[in-house]
Amino acid sequence: MTLPRSPLEIAFAVETDGWPDGLEEIATTAILEALKQSKAKVAGVAELSIVLMDDAEQRELNRQWRQIDKPTNVLSFPQIEPFSPVVGILGDITLARETLEREALELGKSFTDHYTHLVVHGFLHILGYDHIEDDEALVMEGLETQILATLGIEDPYN
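User: That's the sequence. What structure does it adopt?
Assistant: Structure tokens below.
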């Protein structure tokens, strides 16, 4: 018997030491829930990559792609048009460990809850959501909050 393929293949890479174990499963669960709740149209098998790195690597990506010379918690590099059908190579999500750890501590959140939030946030950017304008932010943050609640995580914006 052949098992059906997931609509989304996730390539997961850990480029630096210090990341806890079990993050691949957490990311997969979060992304599949985000895919479901976003009501994105899945048109075939799709692939997404998640890369866990350190602040130095993330800083370089942020400088190169956004002209901001500092590390950031999560970056998304979509390879599909916003809100287009989910198929093929969707893009990459990168996360910076030291920034994520620091923010979780400052926010009084667990590392895994903050990590899950950032994975969902990054994936919604891949799908086309954004938070530049206030009305876009309300939609994106509302969807994030709803997805995270389903996963048992408190509203990150409260």
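The helical segments are 23-38, 55-66, 97-107, 111-127, 134-150.
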